[in-house]
TrEMBL record:
It comes from Actinophytocola gossypii. It comes from the Bacteria. It holds the Pfam family ABC_tran. It is a peripheral membrane protein. Keywords: Amino-acid transport, ATP-binding, Cell membrane, Membrane, Nucleotide-binding, Transport. This is Ectoine/hydroxyectoine ABC transporter ATP-binding protein EhuA. InterPro entries: AAA+_ATPase (IPR003593), ABC_ATPase_HisP-typ (IPR030679), ABC_transporter-like_ATP-bd (IPR003439), ABC_transporter-like_CS (IPR017871), Ectoine_EhuA (IPR014343), MetN_ABC_transporter-like (IPR050086), P-loop_NTPase (IPR027417).
Amino acid sequence: MIRFEDVGKSFGPVTVLDGLNFTVAPGEFVTLIGPSGSGKTTILRLVMTLEQVTSGVITVGGEYLSHMERGGRLVRADEKHQREVRKRIGMVFQQFNLFPNMKVMQNLTEAPVRVLGKSRAEAEERARELLDLVGLNDKVDAHPSQLSGGQQQRVAIARALAMQPDVLLLDEVTSALDPELVAGVLALLKDIARTTDITFLCVTHEMGFARDVSDRVMMFDGGKVIEDAAPDKLFSEPDHERTRSFLQAVL
Ligand code: ADP
């Protein structure tokens, strides 16, 4: 579902990703861990086409976002093609990023109507189902500012699901929440991962969650994957000293 082949990403003179290779299979839940600044968020932003690669090949659902021509020239997909690929991807951010001037219902129906071309009635019916799923069917008419952080994040998750994504990108989705709200949001995500065939690429500092829900965990350092293993293996008996010291620092 996601393939990175020899991907490089620089911001000006600063190289963030360097010769990065990995794949994520359909339906897999893959978590990225590693020190702050190691490039994890940049990877999600590349998949979401919020950033453009400097070199290398990225495909999502078999569609190219970039490829290398013979002779080494980088070719990026044009904006129209990127938009088509982006329709299949949902992203949930640390800071929720709900539309502040819209009620919860409109937050959930805006993109399905405008981007997927659904009728308003159909989009509203689906929105109500999703609000049931995330336990907020009494908040249809609330504005985001009237909700707790945990509730806002649930709406953001429902909004991402409303686009029927093949891929869901999770970027430290519990980092901005009060501690007592974290477990509920993680339980919801685990439920969604278990009951749908969505492919997940997740950046999190919640190591218990990563261990519980992931099919694979990739440890990053210096813009490269230094270890890629099943969670029990990576958390219990990592191969690399760098992984061991990182886990000791965060666990
Ligand atoms: P992580 O998610 O692992 O903490 P990030 O992907 O956010 O790491 O950042 C990796 C590196 O890229 C950091 O050094 C960061 O400062 C740099 N970086 C990220 N985005 C930009 C940007 N838009 N401009 C310049 N540097 C950036």
